[in-house]
Write a structure and sequence with these properties.
By secondary structure, this protein is mainly alpha-helical. The chain has 22 helices and six strands. The chain has a six-stranded mixed sheet. Strand 2, helix 21 and strand 3 form a beta-alpha-beta unit. Helix 9 runs parallel beside helix 19, helix 16 packs across helix 18 and helix 17 packs antiparallel against helix 18. The relative contact order is 0.12. It is a multi-pass membrane protein.
């Protein structure tokens, strides 16, 4: 057995790691590119629709940065109806809870990137503490609770999503709250806890419709726990579920009405990976690995490359073994009610998407953000395995070895998190859309009195505007119909022009178009008068 001093030192190190995991969520919030999905978040917060943006911006007029940012900001306590209407009309697959909370948040504290993203960071931090309460409820073990909290705190996967102005951190929080309140309701069996559980169902569904999978998995657990008897506990669960679904019914009606629009918006998820099933499985393992370690953009491309697997395999193989063994260890050593809850938690979100991909084709289950709750269930399994080993190991040297191993796992995750947080973009930002921007931004920003011309999609331009000097002007066009460039500018740039737009300027006798930097496919071109 270890001495009390060594136990206290180990716990102190774990607490210190948790604190660092919380700190990393709050650092560099304005460092990473404000990418497409986040631009759409700010659009919803502003109360405008994408249709209005396209109509008002692509008329060929010269626009200031303020003209663009108008569609990314909200006034103090601006009417929330515009946010709900924009989502219902154009993105009905996204319920409004998160976006309304962001609207309130930025109305109180400002429209900056840091403020907008900070709400997700706060949700993620709260999730760490709720996870502690959940693990105490399920395992009745302080060690499991502390280690689960530590693994979540330093997980590069969850840190990445905690620094993104999207609903994912809130979804993780509502999922944890729902699981915790269900366990409390089953143990205490009073009206207050069952009502709170019903409330978590409503909050979860208004954050992500995928929460229904989790709630149905909880129902399977309750039914099996009660030995398939239709007793009062089962009835109370069903009543809570019905209340939750009824509370969500207004938005559920919108989802049904806008089904074809949703199908069009999410059609990309029905497309198979280029390398088929093997790439889908690869993404399952890679996403699991990312919950513990993530350095892949050190020298990795932005997509699956079968000819360069080594950078992934050196992490995927040991992490996959650790996770697989931990799930086995959980099932072998914990009570049936404990391992059944965790397995159903993991499977309830993952299995429907995996089944859909295998039967219908697609990449739903390979999309990391769709399985956030499932990955946390796997992390909890690892925490249980480590904590049980630390508790039951008699040999002092074995216990010290497990302590060192646990600290190393946390340390690697922490280093990964700090590294990912410091980068201009990461895998979750769809880097193929922005990877040349670090070269482009200094070229434009070092000029004065400049005009950027483009027929690129508005969200790409909006992303660019967040990093460019506020005195840069823009001209967005569907087709360039003007014979001459606007006067009073010293510098003219073409940003990601279509072939047609670029040729329009190349064909003009009084203009010369050349690449702004060396590249096989440059995104920025300089227009000069001859």
């Amino acid at each position: 057995m270890t001495t009390n001093l060594s136990k206290k030192l180990f716990k102190t190190i774990i607490i210190f790691i948790i604190i660092l995991g919380i700190i990393v969520r709050l650092t560099n919030l304005d460092n990473r590119v404000y990418w497409k999905d986040e631009v759409f978040t700010s659009l919803r917060v502003s109360g405008y629709t994408e249709e209005e943006v396209i109509k008002n911006l692509y008329d060929g007029s010269v626009l200031s940065s303020e003209d663009l940012q108008k569609y990314q900001q909200t006034r103090f306590f601006n009417n929330p109806i515009g946010t709900v209407y924009g989502l219902a009309k154009e993105e009905a697959q996204l319920p409004p809870l998160y976006f309304l909370l962001v609207k309130l948040w930025v109305s109180l504290f400002g429209n900056s990137v840091t403020i907008t993203r900070s709400l997700s960071a706060i949700f993620s931090i709260i999730s760490c503490f709720v996870l502690y309460l959940f693990c105490k409820e399920l395992f009745e073990s302080n060690m499991v609770a502390w280690l689960s909290m530590a693994l979540l705190a330093v997980s590069p996967f969850y840190v990445v999503y905690s620094q993104e102005a999207r609903p994912y951190s809130l979804w993780l929080l509502t999922s944890l709250l729902s699981n915790w309140m269900l366990l409390r309701s089953l143990r205490l069996n009073n009206k207050w806890n069952w009502r709170m559980y019903a409330l978590t169902i409503v909050l979860g569904l208004y954050t992500s419709p995928f929460s229904l999978f989790l709630n149905l998995g909880q129902g399977v657990y309750v039914f099996l726990r009660e030995k398939s008897k239709f007793n009062q506990i089962v009835k109370k669960y069903l009543m809570s579920l019905i209340i939750g679904i009824l509370g969500f019914s207004p938005w559920l009606a919108i989802i049904v009405i806008r089904y074809h629009q949703i199908k069009g918006r999410t059609s990309w998820s029905s497309n198979n990976y280029e390398n088929g099933l093997i790439e889908l499985i690869f993404n399952w393992l890679r996403n699991i690995t990312r919950t513990f370690v993530d350095f892949e953009l050190l020298n990795a491309p932005f997509s699956y490359l079968s000819q360069h697997p080594f950078i992934y395999l050196i992490a995927v193989i040991p992490v996959s073994f650790l996770v697989g063994y931990s799930v086995y260890f959980l099932c072998k050593n914990s009570s049936k009610s404990t391992w059944l809850f965790i397995l159903l938690w993991i499977a309830s979100t993952a299995f429907p998407l995996i089944l859909a991909d295998i039967i219908l084709g697609g990449r739903r289950s390979g999309t990391a953000r769709y399985l956030l709750p499932s990955y946390l269930g796997l992390q909890i399994s690892v925490a249980y395995c480590l904590a049980t080993g630390l508790k039951n190991t008699i040999s002092a040297w074995k216990q010290k070895l497990l302590q060192i191993m646990t600290i190393c796992i946390c340390f690697v995750g922490l280093v990964s998190s700090f590294y990912a947080s410091s980068q201009a973009f990461w895998w979750n930002n769809d880097p193929s859309r922005y990877y040349q921007n670090p070269e482009i931004l200094p070229i434009i920003n070092k000029t004065s009195n400049s005009l950027v011309i483009s027929d690129e999609k508005w969200d790409q331009i909006m992303t660019l505007s967040y990093s460019l000097s506020p005195d840069i002007q823009y001209q967005l066009v569907k087709q360039y119909n003007q014979k001459e460039l606007p006067d009073n500018f010293k510098n003219y740039f073409l940003y990601k022009p279509s072939k047609n737009l670029k040729e329009q300027f190349e064909e003009k006798k009084n203009y010369q178009v050349q690449a702004a930097y060396e590249s096989n496919d440059p995104w920025l071109w300089v227009i000069e008068r001859k």
